[in-house]
Each structure stands twice: as C-alpha cells, then as structure tokens.
Design goal:
- The structure holds two protein chains of two kinds.
- Chain A is α/β, with parallel strands linked by helices.
- Chain A has six helices and seven strands.
- Chain A is globular and about 45 Å long.
- The relative contact order of chain A is 0.23.
- Chain B starts with a strand and ends with a strand.
- The chains are: A alpha/beta, B alpha/beta.
- The interface between A and B is large, with 45 and 47 residues.
C-alpha cells in the first residue's frame, strides 16, 4: 500500500521514509532540468530570489511534451537525474527537500540527502503518459524561452513514486540489484 | 524507372514519426506481458505501469515517453527511383517538422550546441542515413532516439587480441554501469567491425529489428542468445529496481574490420524501443 505524502516536505516525514517505500505524492512541485538548474544557481550567485520558494520544495526532473488542447500537460516522465547532480548541493542549501527523477545519483547527492535530511524519489522512466494523469494543474513560472525546460509549477495528486535514496544513505538501485544479481 | 515526388516522403515521415512516438510496437508489448509472471515483485509492478502507460498513450494519441528524441531516419532508396519535386533532405525535415508539431511531440533538438545552444523549435534537422539498394521502392524507417539511453551508449576501439571474450566483457560492463539510467528493460544493439564511425551506425541499425529476431548467421544468433542471458543475470531489472528482465533482446550487426583494430559499439535503447517503417 502506497504511503500518502504531501508537499512541502518536512524533516519529520522524510525521516520516516525508507528505500523501496511506494509513495503517493500530492501537492505542489516544481519542474527543472539542466538549463533551468543553471539559471537557478546563477540567480543565487547574483543574490536574487528564485522563481519559487525553495523551502521544503520538491523538484521534478522533467521536460514534458506539449499539451494538446484540453490537456493539462503532455507526456511527463522523469529524465535521467545524474545530469543535475552538480546543482544539488546548492539547491539543498536553500531548502529543497526532495527530487523526482530516474537513474543513479552521485556521492555528493547521497551525502547531501543525509546532511540536509532530504529524499530522492524515482518515477518510472518512460511511463510518461501514465504519470501525466497525476498532474492536475500546470503553469510555467519561469524561463519560458527554454520551452520544454522551462520551470513549471505543478499540482499533483497521488503521483506514483518509489523511494530510491533515503536520508540515511541507502540506495534502492544498489540493494535491488544485489538481491537479484546472478553474476 | 519509377518517379516519386518527395512530398510523399514528407507525408510518410509525418505519419510514422507520430506513430513511432505514440503507439508501442506489439513485439515490445508482448515481451512486457510475457515477462511479468517470472519477474521480481517490484519489477512486475514496473512492467504493469509500462503496459498501462502504453494503453493510455495509444488511446489518447500522446507520447509513450515525453522524450521523443532525435529523429533518426534511415532511407533505403531503390536505384531505379527518381525523386522529384525538390530537395530530399528538405522533404525529410518537413516531415519531421509536421509530425512533431501536429503530433504534439517534444522538440528536443538544440542548434549551435557549442557556442549558442538554442532549441530549433521543430525538432529539425533529422539525422538522415541513406542507402542505395536494388529496386524501385523507397523504405523509410524512423528511430526517435531519446537521451537517457543515448547517454549510456559506448564505442570502444579494442585490439584484435581482445577477442570475443573482450567484447563480451565490454557489453556486460557497459550495461552494468548504465544500471537504471537507460530505462530498462532495454534493447542492446551491438555493432562489430568497420571503423570508429561506422560501428556505431551498425549498432544503431540493429535496433530496427523486432524482439526475438535473430541474426541470420547461426553462430552470431547463438552469441546473441548467450550474451542476452548474461545481461539478464546482472539483476538490474525493470526500472533498475532489481529483477530479471534487464534487456528484452540483444542484437549483433557485423561488418568486416581491418587487421589494425576491432571496434565494438554498444547502442542502448530504452524499453519503448520506438521504431516505425513504411514503404513507398
């Protein structure tokens, strides 16, 4: 049975979650990928405000396909997360608490999750039509010129996720593979 | 000699680019369904999501995956065909432009990548491979290649002395290191021989095969089965969460090499294994 979690995330909620937990996420989350992350850290370096309040925030690594008339959003599955690894320490510093993506994270991220009590959720890569069904509102709030890479404010309802890296240094990709490897 | 207006190429590409991105091929769907019964609980849950995802995408004509990729187009042009009505290259790009715009597919192509990266806005230009073959038909295939699996693909300029065992280790190491990143269950395309550039083309071309379609050379066909078994012992599983089905298939395409080098290339493709063809 999936655990219901709401944003913004708090330390108390994060501390209870462990790798392999199925999550049903609801609330407001923000999208950002490679180019948007660069712009976000540039804003920080200039001492300017971010286009959203980072405290307790969850960032979804996604560049959706365009919405058809009548759709909230197009297909919206996760992109590979490691490309955003270099930006994660700065995002954690300003209060980001969760990330949604797919694929393995680097040492700096796994350590950061422990230092800042934060969490990395996996969404199924390529299940983009299915995931779009859990997005009920979508609004571009920054960097419109980046097209699919613009920062969007999403309202999600029961988005199906799984905990990949918890705040205690565990990694579901490593543990899952260990259990099933026949090498 | 047969005359074909390039407008037919544009129309065909518009149609198959949308189909490739929104309709999962039957061979892949069958592989998901047939693999569920033996899969790890978490792997089974991922496969169930992928089946449901494909059904939603087909019903609502929306992309299976938001990353509708670089439009890689392969054309086999009969040598008795005369293409008229304008530039073939422009006709191909126009087909991609129309397909990606009218099909609400994501535009991911960035121009001037080194100095001034800007989205081209219509997913053009395509990557176009042409081959001249006997006959008076034109076969067009599109393989929209997304970033997740592209980033995990590799080429290795190995020594002839590294032999079959060396290539096998390269295959296993590459898939092991890619882990969850290319969206398993993947398809593994192995190119062997040729030159640095040609070997990657061979590997890419192998991805156009259907799941279960073996190399015509019986010895290579055996090797494909053996290496696929080895890959599926890695334990990566659907979604990379741990399980049995790491790869749905492994294809080898060979070409002669010189006496100086022995390059294998490994082209990984994510679970949707998008590929559509048509013949004019």
């Amino acid at each position: 049975m999936a655990i219901k979690v709401e944003t913004p995330l708090t330390d108390n909620v994060i501390k209870e979650l462990k790798i392999g937990d199925e999550i049903s996420l609801s609330g407001i989350i923000y999208t950002a990928r490679d180019a948007a992350h660069q712009k976000l850290v540039d804003l920080m370096a200039e001492g300017k405000d971010l286009p959203f309040d980072p405290k307790g925030s969850v960032i979804f690594y996604v560049g959706p396909s365009p919405a058809k008339p009548g759709q909230v959003i197009g297909a919206a599955g996760p992109t590979t997360s490691y490309r955003m690894d270099p930006f994660v320490p700065k995002m954690l510093e300003v209060g980001m608490k969760g990330m949604i993506g797919k694929g393995s994270r680097g040492e700096e991220v796994i350590k950061g999750l422990q230092d800042y009590t934060a969490i990395y959720f996996g969404a199924t890569g390529g299940a983009a039509a299915l995931l779009a069904k859990s997005i009920v509102e979508c609004e571009v709030i920054a960097f419109d010129d980046l097209g699919p890479e613009a920062v969007r404010k999403l309202t999600v309802k029961d988005m199906p996720l799984i905990v990949i890296n918890d705040c205690k240094g565990n990694d579901l990709y490593v543990e899952g593979r260990k259990e099933w490897s026949r090498e | 000699m047969r005359t074909i207006d390039v407008k037919e190429v544009t129309a065909a590409l518009k149609k198959i680019s949308i189909e490739a991105c929104t309709v999962l091929n039957d061979d892949v769907m069958n592989c998901f369904k047939n693999s569920m019964k033996d899969e790890s609980p978490v792997g089974k849950a991922v496969l169930e999501q992928l089946v449901k995802n494909a059904e939603i995408a087909k019903d609502e004509k929306m992309p299976i995956c938001q990353d509708t990729g670089f439009s890689c187009v392969f054309m086999e042009i009969g040598q008795d065909v005369h293409l008229t009505g304008g530039s073939l290259r422009e006709a191909v790009d126009e087909g991609i432009r129309q397909g990606y715009t009218e099909g609400y597919l994501r535009k991911s192509v960035v121009k001037n990548p080194l100095l001034d990266p800007k989205n081209s806005g219509d997913n053009t230009p395509a990557i176009l491979h042409t081959d001249i073959v006997p006959g008076e038909k034109v076969k067009i295939t599109i393989v929209p290649k997304g970033g997740g699996s592209e980033n995990m693909s590799r080429v290795n300029m190995m020594k002839p002395a590294d032999g079959v065992e060396g290539v096998k280790q390269f295959v296993l190491d590459t898939v092991r290191n890619a882990g969850p990143n290319p969206c398993p269950p993947i398809v593994v395309g192995v190119g062997m021989g040729g030159t640095f550039d040609y070997v990657t083309y061979l590997a890419k071309k192998s991805l156009m095969r259907k799941i279960g379609e073996r190399n015509k050379d019986p010895k290579l066909a055996e090797l494909e089965k053996e290496w696929l078994d080895e890959v599926n012992k890695l334990g990566i599983g659907p979604g990379g969460l741990g399980g049995k089905l790491t790869a749905m298939d492994l294809f080898i395409e060979e070409y002669p090499r010189t006496i100086d080098y022995s390059p294998p290339a490994l082209y990984l493709y994510f679970h949707a294994a998008r590929c559509k063809s048509c013949i004019i």
